[in-house]
Amino acid sequence: MAAMTDKTKGGFEPGSFLFNYRQISTESYWHHAHRGIEMLYIYEGHGEIRVDNRTYPIGNDSLVWFQPYQVHRVAVPFEPGRSYIRTNLTLDPAYLEPYLAPFPGLGRFFRHLWKGNLREPFVPSARDTPIRDLLERIHAALNDSSPGRDEDVGLLLLNLIRQLREHPFRDEADAAAGAAPMNRARSHAERITEWLDLHYKRPFKLEELAESLHLSPYHVSHVFKKSAGMTLSEYLIRRRVREACALLANTSKSVQEIASEVGGLSTSYFCQMFRKAKGLSPEQYRQSIR
Fold this sequence. Notes:
By secondary structure, the chain is α+β, with helices and mostly antiparallel strands. It is built from 12 helices and 10 strands. About 5% of the residues have low confidence.
């Protein structure tokens, strides 16, 4: 079983689950990303959170979901008489895999939260949901020294994912469920996506993609945008930036080497693309990883 702790100590390790329950401070300023998924529940606090160039006003009972390597800035200014109280849950997605195996629907939803294109990662208020109670129960289970602790925590996390699906992220659940049927257009779109994921490290040629799928270049572009809601170029940029984030976080490769590895890009173009997507330079991003 992966390591777990009720209080973050040091950096985030693969396979781990970190849980900081009801931390209290008078202010907070963070600009960073994580290797794992993070869920932030705010009991009390006012300020703003910026996620990949989008800003959300936070208040009491706000909930935010951060995907791996997603840059976010938390700004809660000092206000006399006010505190910033929150719980952070950070985990390697692989931590939950054994628990999700018997539940394909819940697993599909979790994978959507993990690496899908979320409509909104921010919930203004999750007060009228079971989330607060579940976080308290996870905290209690982590402080239990009985032999069944790990199993209890795993089951509580499953319940947490289920409640996220039923309540604050119901729209995301519908999107994940809607991805299951495979009509002809979706079949083409999935084949296109598979091809892009296999070849994104090379310079992109639409004609090469179209020829490999026996479709016209126009049809490839049209079908993909209709199904995915973005152009081929936009998807490639997201895929290359995601890989670049992993390389910046986990290797000592230079920016020039990474630019070449994620598509044979020039360093200047790569830096421009990365800054536009993440709101900071590759080197700044590398320094922000916790």
